[in-house]
Amino acid sequence: MAFDQASSKTLTERLKGPPAGQAEILFPRETRFKIHSIKQDGRNIHVLLSDIAANNAMNVDIKEMFFGGKL
């Protein structure tokens, strides 16, 4: 008898789908970017961003990605 993975899930797991995960965007070190918007669409998050040339970043707060501190 084969193990049926679908039947081993709880009712909550079947209704809600898989547990939330995370995604990473990998940039080269010292890449500067601007986040234009962050929008939630159900269980998905859409982040719109663009890179910033170093000479165009004069009037922009540049923040460290992990803790959010200004650079």
Uncertain stretches: none
Structural class: alpha+beta
The general outline is: elongated
N-end to C-end Cα span: 60 Å
Element pattern in H and E: HHEE
What does this structure look like?
By secondary structure, the protein is α+β, with helices and mostly antiparallel strands. It has a domain at 27-71. It has helices spanning 5-8, 11-16; strands at residues 33-41, 44-51. Strands 1-2 form a two-stranded antiparallel sheet. A hairpin with a 2-residue loop joins strand 1 and strand 2 (44-51). The chain is elongated, with a radius of gyration of 20 Å. The termini are far apart. The model has no long low-confidence stretch (mean pLDDT 70).
SSE map:
Blueprint: H1 5-8, H2 11-16, E1 33-41, E2 44-51
Antiparallel strand pairs: 1-2
Region (Disordered): 1-21
Biased composition (Polar residues): 1-10
Defining key terms:
two-stranded antiparallel ribbon, alpha+beta, elongated, 2 helices, 71 residues, single chain, 14% helix
Short structural summary:
The protein is 14% helix and 24% strand. It is an alpha+beta fold and 71 residues long. The chain has a two-stranded antiparallel ribbon.
